[in-house]
């Protein structure tokens, strides 16, 4: 919240908050116009509380295919106000006083307060970086869980683990081996997996996004969460969903029914049309799910080049909108203040937006309080931006050094 406000006040180029500044695909804009101007005036009224029927039907079809099982649209899928509400419903539904929830650092910042609001205790485990030897750029794949350390975090109090692959902020795409490690521990300790997969279509360099719910023993204990905002570059529409077994979704429906109850009908209708189109074109070159990551990979590479040219070392992400860069070489611009309560990267990001007009988010924002100083010389950039925005960022960087 603090950095979004600073970006609004000072930035000329905002690579902070994660949203595209390019338009959504034409087919979706056309569906949007049709939904609002067409004959279907009931689209302006309430629809089914747990998800507009056309949307839950096509989500059940698509995710059924991806997970290799038959899904019931009415009981295995629920629509939410963005993935954010899906997360909130999960924590409220499953976490009780005294329960522990394992969160992998760095993490999307709402997990920690949401666990606490439900009365639970977050238990943190960091991804640990290992620098590549041969002078190559670091990749998000170089940030790994220590298997013994992860195992040590599970106990009889563990209710769930939150998995976010592809991960915000690092862009890490968890490998099958890593997911199997998590899955085995969930099965062993009878824990749930809240799997935040909002960047599921944004995976680069031919990497594969593996759904943990598809691994052995995991369907019954996993809620998979998605976002139309990220899927179709429409973050303002706030349409998200949960997919999982009815034994879990029934509790999520209870929370939803007694808090939000209902999501915007027209937005759900348009997203349903978008998915219908993608379902028919699945894996084909003209599919948005094929085209978007291609375009995004180019944007990623462009920002990587801009950063490398000035000595801000990027960690090349395997997925998502985001890229984290090492700012150690820039310490002479913003000297360290020993014993400051504020992590270095936070002061650096504030200085950068005020003095250079370039907004980014400090990596420490994605760590819990006591760990904020462990990785405090990195900042996160969002590269889901128009060519002109990336060029403007490049101009700022090249003039700087
Ligand atoms: N999870 C992650 C990892 C995210 O990055 C975001 C959005 N920044 C969300 C969930 C929330 O998604 P939505 O906008 O659909 O609520």
TrEMBL record:
It is found in: Cytoplasm, Cytosol. It catalyses: L-kynurenine + 2-oxoglutarate = kynurenate + L-glutamate + H2O; 3-phenylpyruvate + L-glutamine = 2-oxoglutaramate + L-phenylalanine; an S-substituted L-cysteine + H2O = a thiol + pyruvate + NH4(+). Residues 13-391 form the Aminotransferase class I/classII large domain. Its cofactor is pyridoxal 5'-phosphate. Homodimer. Pathway: Amino-acid degradation; L-kynurenine degradation; kynurenate from L-kynurenine: step 1/2. It comes from Anas platyrhynchos. GO terms for cellular component: cytosol; mitochondrion. This is Kynurenine--oxoglutarate transaminase 1.
């Amino acid at each position: 919240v603090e950095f979004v406000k600073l970006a609004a006040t000072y930035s000329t180029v905002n690579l902070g908050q994660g949203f595209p500044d390019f338009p959504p695909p034409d087919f979706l804009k056309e569906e949007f116009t049709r939904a609002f101007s067409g004959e279907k005036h009931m689209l302006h009224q309430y629809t089914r509380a747990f998800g507009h029927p056309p949307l839950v039907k096509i989500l059940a079809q698509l995710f059924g295919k991806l997970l290799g099982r038959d899904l019931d649209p009415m009981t295995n899928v629920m629509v939410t106000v963005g993935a954010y509400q899906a997360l909130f419903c999960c924590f409220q539904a499953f976490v009780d006083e005294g329960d522990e929830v394992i969160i992998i650092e760095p993490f999307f910042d709402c997990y920690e307060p949401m666990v606490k609001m439900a009365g639970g205790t977050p238990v943190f485990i960091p991804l640990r970086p290992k620098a590549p030897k041969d002078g190559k750029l670091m990749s998000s794949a170089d940030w790994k869980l220590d298997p013994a350390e992860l195992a040590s975090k599970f106990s009889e109090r563990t209710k769930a683990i939150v998995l976010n692959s592809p991960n915000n902020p690092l862009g890490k795409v968890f490998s099958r081996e890593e997911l199997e490690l998590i899955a085995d521990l969930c099965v062993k300790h009878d824990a749930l997996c809240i799997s935040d997969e909002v960047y599921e279509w944004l995976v680069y360099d031919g990497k594969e996004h593996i759904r943990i719910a598809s691994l052995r023993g995991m369907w019954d204990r996993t809620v998979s969460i998605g976002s139309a905002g990220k899927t179709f570059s429409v973050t303002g529409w706030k349409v998200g969903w949960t997919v999982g077994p009815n034994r879990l979704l029934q509790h999520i429906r209870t929370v939803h029914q007694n808090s939000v109850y209902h999501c915007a009908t027209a937005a759900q209708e348009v997203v349903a049309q978008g998915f219908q189109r993608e379902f028919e074109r699945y894996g084909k070159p003209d599919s948005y799910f094929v085209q978007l990551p291609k375009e995004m990979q180019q944007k990623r590479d462009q920002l990587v080049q801009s950063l490398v040219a000035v000595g801000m070392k990027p960690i090349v992400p395997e997925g998502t909108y985001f890229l984290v860069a090492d700012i150690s070489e820039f310490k002479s611009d913003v000297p360290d203040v020993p014993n400051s309560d504020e992590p270095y990267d936070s002061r650096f990001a504030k200085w950068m937006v005020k003095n250079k007009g370039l907004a980014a988010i400090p990596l420490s924002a994605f760590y819990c309080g006591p760990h904020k100083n462990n990785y405090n010389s990195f900042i996160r950039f969002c590269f889901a931006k128009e060519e002109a925005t990336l060029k403007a960022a490049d101009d700022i960087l090249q003039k700087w050094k």
